[in-house]
Amino acid sequence: MKLVFENPHTEIYDISEEIPHTVFAHWRGFLLDGKAEAIEACQVSLDYFRDANVWVMISDHQHLEGASVPFLNWLHDYYFPTAVQNGLRAEIILDAELEMGNIVLDLMYNPDDLYKNVNEGEIYTPKIDILENAKVLARQIVEKQLSIS
Fold it and tell me: CB neighbours of 55 closer than 8 A, spacing ≥ 6?
C-alpha cells in the first residue's frame, strides 16, 4: 500500500499491488465546497484515476462528519462525471460511524445502486459492510473489466 496523498480530509493509497487498478481512500471531517483541502483531495483523486489507470476506489467514510449541500452539488455536477471520464468504474462505499455522515452518504450516492449493473457513463457505488468484503468486490470488478478489455 503506497500513500499517494494526505491532507486533513483524506488519505489516498494506491493498493494496486494487492488489487490491480484500485485505490483506497479514507475520507474524514466535514466537507465544504469553499474549503480548499476538501476540493484538493477530490481533485488529486481525479487526477490519480486518470494518471494511474484506476478503475475502482474503496472509500472508507468511517470518520466522515458531513458535507454541505453546495459540496454535494459539486460532487454530482463535477466530481462524478470527471471520475467517469478519467476511468473510474466503481466506488465501493464503507459507512460512516456518525449518523450525520451516513445521511450525507445517502444524499451523495444512490441507495438503489447496489442492484444496478455497471453502465457506461456511470459509477457503480455499492455500500459494503467491511473492508475485506469491499476488497473481494473490487477484485471482481477488476476481473470483469479485464475480461471485457
Answer: 21, 22, 87, 88, 89, 90, 141, 142, 145
List domains and CATH numbers for the chain: 2-148 (3.30.750.24)
Cβ contacts of 62 within 8 Å, gap of 6 or more: 26, 28, 94, 95, 96, 97
How far apart are alpha carbons 70 and 75 in whole angstroms?
9
First to last CA, the chain: 25
Per the confidence metrics, is the pTM higher than 0.85?
yes
Phi, psi (5° rounding) for residue 75?
Answer: -60, -50
The pLDDT of residue 119 = 41
pLDDT in tens, 41-83: 999 999 999 999 999 999 998 888 888 888 888 888 899 899 9
